[in-house]
Design brief:
single chain; 183 residues; rod-shaped
Length: 183
């Protein structure tokens, strides 16, 4: 009957260790999945920002075209020569500023897209780290369980060397010791 207590303690330790190992792996997998989802979201947001920038740049182009048409119509209505240097300078300056503004909007869109891709890479790396952490924690749980089992077995005397003479102790070596003495 005294052997039943260590065996029960070892069985409980094995079950607890198995549960802890599975939980560690599952936790690592869930954290990795969340990081990958966040990475995909960041990449999509970057792509959306770039698409919005392109749309905004196209609208700016349309506004610049309407402004140029308005300038030409107003100049003609006021009797300004459309091929005069002063009028052409105004139109060129307006077009140049509009082009610079449009280019800046497009650059910002590309920067946002690149930032989203960089965040996705960071989240992907984090996902790998979360998986590794889950397996590392599982390994640590296994070692802790094995140490606990060994401590319980040792306290029960299972690793004691057989005693010389008298009744053999209930150790792992006792079966081999009995066989040796019976021969």
């Amino acid at each position: 009957m005294p052997q039943a207590v260590p065996i029960a303690m070892i069985a409980i330790t094995v079950a607890s260790t198995a549960y802890s190992v599975a939980g560690s792996i599952q936790s690592g997998q869930q954290q990795a999945a969340m990081a990958e989802a966040q990475g995909k979201q960041a990449a999509m947001q970057g792509e959306m920002a770039n698409l919005q920038a392109r749309s905004q740049a196209a609208e700016m182009q349309n506004q610049e075209t309407r402004l140029r048409a308005t300038q030409v119509a107003q100049a003609a209505a006021n009797g300004v020569s459309l091929d005069s240097d002063s009028f052409l300078n105004v139109v060129a300056a307006t077009a140049s500023k509009a082009e610079l503004d449009r280019a800046q909007v497009l650059r910002n869109g590309l920067i946002s897209q690149a930032a989203g891709q960089a965040q996705q890479s960071t989240y992907s790396a984090a996902a790998g780290n979360y998986r590794t952490s889950g397996y590392t924690n599982a390994g640590a749980s296994l070692l802790k369980g094995a140490t606990s089992i060994a401590g319980t077995a040792s306290a029960a005397g299972w690793f004691d060397a057989p005693k010389t003479g008298g009744t053999p102790s209930p150790s792992l070596y006792s079966g081999a010791a009995r066989q040796a003495t019976n021969q």
